[in-house]
């Protein structure tokens, strides 16, 4: 995948006077898995760019076109040579109207400022245009996202087209014993940033607490605010890496903006360096740090009291510093991974969707088990077919193993050659856009090669359900199967997390075991069941009888579980001389239980679980599985919910500042807390770091 990034006109993409946009682009590209294929376009003179893959756009003044239009058109000319899959525009929504005739390219727009203050997104009409024109819009805070949707009620578009992607910084080791009695202010020295409030406050603080010092970094030629003290050091511009180094020694960092900051990179960086951070409750600032101290009233008196409280209470100061550092998650790698995940969805999505919701012709080759006369109709291939059809696609399905079974002859004893001939004949007649292989082991590579010769633009994809972990059953044979056709495949979808595997599968993505509303029709949570727990296993017996002496550790575990509490009613199959069950019989049996156990053979690995988990969860059974599968942390934490309206004293005693407020306890003590909504990945990372 190739990515072209267009910076705002005259953005300094260098170490000289680099702004938040340039730093964000540099940091996220350097930590992206697409870094080698990412190209940055800008207009900059006589400065060394941050990255080698930088393309400078030289402009001559035009009497016909605006600088913006001229800049974008020049970009499109240069971008043709690279021919990227994704074009990413930063902080210039007005550029979007000049991006025309971009076939087969995805567009991402990043907002780093308030959308309502920017040309191209001020009006509701502007923002609706962007939603319809762009594939993804990313905001640097939830506050900015909410601002964008003022006057827009289409929640479907909101969910599909937008996400929050915070700024990031690196987190280095901090020696808390080396922290100085030092207070910082970093930013424009104007009243919008609250420098007048800080200046009045800090002079009083330094007069009273003579062993403390303060440092100010920034300037503002348009607004003259002067504050002097022998322990106050005022710098002008300081290179970004030097600012970060200085913050390692700072004890208290103040960000007291009056204006609605869309995010606030300064407080983020201060938190990453283990500072106690004081912020105003403006814009997206509260989202920058989960443990920042938020000023209730933005005034010099309030700020004075807050700083003094930290100075006098050493334990509170140290606690604030360490919590900010410990709970910091927005590092470069984390944010880059979130962006890469968004980019990856475009690769997967373009197989099936276009902007105009084009209907594709899909040739789906998989084993439908037709030779078993309907006994095994609960089939993943059929579930996927239903999904394709509901999304408007034309699907032709060939069941490879059934064709082989039914077309064996003296000339073709195995039936394999007949299968290849039928596939090519169907391919010529149907003329598909996409060929999907689902465990289609009987299809030869030579057949795929012939398809490619017929249609060089054909897209090949495959899905695979079986275990691929080196700890699981049939590891070697399954690995060979999944890699057999890799030279032809555009994508591979696995029910195991690809990053957890010891084998490298090119262009692979995690695919949850699919459910389908026409298959999973039970509502066990809504009915009376004679049994409490259902469990079935096969020991690898393929639709046959349980073999004598077959067993594994799961059987011992289930028997211990049964013996723990005789009042719990178990319905168990595939063990204790009870034969395995499949298909319709399986569905009839799970209809009788409230809960189901999902225990796969072999050592657990992230996300892998047999496709039977779909039949359990999809039919409304409370399903229990092994935590190592990554589906649950149920053995690690207990979750409790408190209504602050009915328990105001509890909320007050916990120091709840905003809703939702999350607390993690260990041995009865709070070890971490955070306020405000956050994406799932951020919450997961916070929990993992805290426990």
List the topology elements.
Elements: E1 3-6, H1 20-30, E2 38-42, E3 54-56, H2 67-82, E4 86-90, E5 106-111, H3 124-133, E6 136-139, H4 142-148, H5 155-161, E7 162-164, E8 182-186, H6 195-208, E9 213-217, E10 232-235, H7 240-247, E11 252-255, H8 265-272, E12 276-280, E13 293-295, H9 300-312, H10 314-326, H11 332-349, E14 361-366, H12 380-390, E15 394-399, H13 400-406, H14 416-430, E16 434-438, H15 445-454, E17 459-464, H16 475-483, E18 491-494, E19 508-510, E20 531-536, H17 553-564, E21 570-573, H18 583-590, E22 593-598, H19 612-618, E23 622-625, H20 648-653, E24 661-666, E25 669-675, H21 680-690
Parallel strand pairs: 1-2, 1-4, 2-3, 4-5, 5-6, 6-7, 8-9, 8-11, 9-10, 11-12, 12-13, 14-15, 14-16, 16-17, 17-18, 18-19, 20-21, 20-22, 22-23
Antiparallel strand pairs: 24-25
Helix pairs in contact: 6-9, 9-10, 14-15
Note down, in words, how this protein is organized.
The chain has 691 residues and is an alpha/beta fold. It has five domains: 3-164, 3-Layer(aba) Sandwich (Rossmann fold); 176-330, Glycogen Phosphorylase B (Rossmann fold), CATH 3.40.50; 355-510, Glycogen Phosphorylase B (Rossmann fold, 3-Layer(aba) Sandwich), CATH 3.40.50; 524-629, Rossmann fold (3-Layer(aba) Sandwich), CATH 3.40.50; 648-690, Glutaredoxin, CATH 3.40.30.10. The protein is 32% helix and 17% strand. α6 packs across α9 (300-312) and α14 (416-430) runs parallel beside α15.
